[in-house]
Amino acid sequence: NEIPPELKTEVDRFFFQFLSMTCSDLDAADSKGEPIHQLLMAKKMQRLDKSPDFRPFKFRIQAFTNGFSEQALLARQGLSEDVIPMKKVRHYLWTNPYISRFNEDGNRAKSNGNRIWNIDAKKAPEGGWLFRPFRRKIAGSFPGVAYVGLKWQFRPRVWDPQASRSNLEVKFSSPSLAPWLAWNEDVLSGTPSSDTLSTEIVVEGWFMQEGKEVALSQKYFLFVAPLSRDDPSAYMGTRRPSLVGDRRGVSDPVLTRPLCRAIKAVLIEAHSVQAAPNPDPEQQIQLQTFLTRQEQVLTVTAHAINDALSAPSHAASEQPTNASDALARAGTDVVLWALHKVAADHSAVIQMATGIPAEYNSGVQEVTMHEVSSATKTAVAQAVEQTDTLTSPIDVMLTAETIIQRNTQPVTPCIPDPSQYPLAPDVVRHVPTSS
Questions:
Q1: From 418's CA, which of 105, 244, 247, 406 has a CA 20 to 30 Å away?
Q2: How far apart are CA 165 and CA 300, in angstroms?
């Protein structure tokens, strides 16, 4: 079923031409008029258009296959089915590294009940599109933070974007581990103590395929943090007092502690799910996956903000230069909107009790860090629920920002100025810009 070697290079070129043409035309269809794109909601498409990172395109399988065969091979290049039979075209697409047919959970990719193929692409600076291959890898949602006194565990698996590996027998191990960590039945687990240090973990997976031994390796970094109310952001390391742009003039705790507390809350909730008596196995796996995805997004966002805080300040008008900068800005916006939402909710309560309009009762208000953290966590949880596992953390945070804006009372948002209003240990002061 392989494409003849003498035609493979040409077919590859036609494939990328067809991909570029299809990604540029959301109304692309095959000869029968069947749409190729499995379109997302309009608002989500707008968010994806703004993202500097690779974005997912979802293609309907039959229409994409027909379109590629008809438009790219036959109509444009004259390669009829006599030259390249349809079964070879299908095999070429099924095994193409730039197409993901299976999700990381090992199931066939679906959207709105339809089976689809995923493509990762981003707009090139000079025009056109850049495409990213999918590679077999060690997968599973790695919990990036281990809290002192709580059991931490990671159950890896092998993900193959072109095939289901659910029944693959894989042996996992690590060349070296911290003393508190150990493998047991291909689950890495342990409970850190108060003197445990953060550590790098290398996970290796070994399995047999077609009589050959295949080895995969993946590096992770595990942060160990105290389960302390007084210092929930201790693992974040050294930070500088401002983030890029003058609209980020907010003290470090306002930006990082809500995220860290949200991570802590998610991990405690996940621990409760693991310890639940007589759980429904399917429901437990779904909930654990949901919580792990939240923790993953919150953790990488916290680190992106930490990196931005450690970098030299930039002009407020400067656009994000990479995905980490974009994630830092998106994460900061979510935290600030969470602050505005809590303050607006307080004003709304005062209005209901006194009849004084919210815009006139929003004097300096005490907003607790717990309230901001809870609002941040809720928005991220809703965003994770509305997006799929292939959605990048940037797009999840942009979705969370949209959600929190939509749910915020119509009070003029404002940025707290910690230089004028010192923060209490667990209080964020909300200072309105207008009375």
A1: 406
A2: 27
Residues 110 and 116: beta-carbon distance below 8 Å: yes
The reported pLDDT for the residue numbered 360 is 45
CA distances from 337 to 344, 408, 425 (A): 10, 8, 20
- What length is written for the chain? 435
Residue type, 313: S
Specify which residues 137 forms β-bridges with: 159
- Residue 18 φ then ψ, to 5°: -65, -40
Contacts of 170 (CB under 8 A, 6+ apart): 157, 158, 186, 205, 206, 207
| Predicted local distance difference test score (pLDDT) of residue 250 | 43
* Assigned token pair, 4: 């003849």
CA 61 to chain centre: 25
Least confident of 49-53, 62-66, 88-92: 49-53
Q: List, as one string, the DSSP characters of 165-202.
A: -TT---EEE-S---TT-EEETTEEEE---TTPPPEEEE
Mean pLDDT throughout 369-373?
A: 86
Query: What's the pLDDT at 288?
Result: 81
DSSP 90-158: HHHHHT-TT-B-B-TTSSBPEETTEEEEEEEEEE-TTSSEEE-----EEES----EEETTS-EEE--EE
Q: How far apart are CA 60 and CA 33, in angstroms?
A: 13
The whole-number pLDDT of residue 416 equals: 42
Measured CA to CA, the distance from residue 114 to residue 62 in angstroms comes to: 11
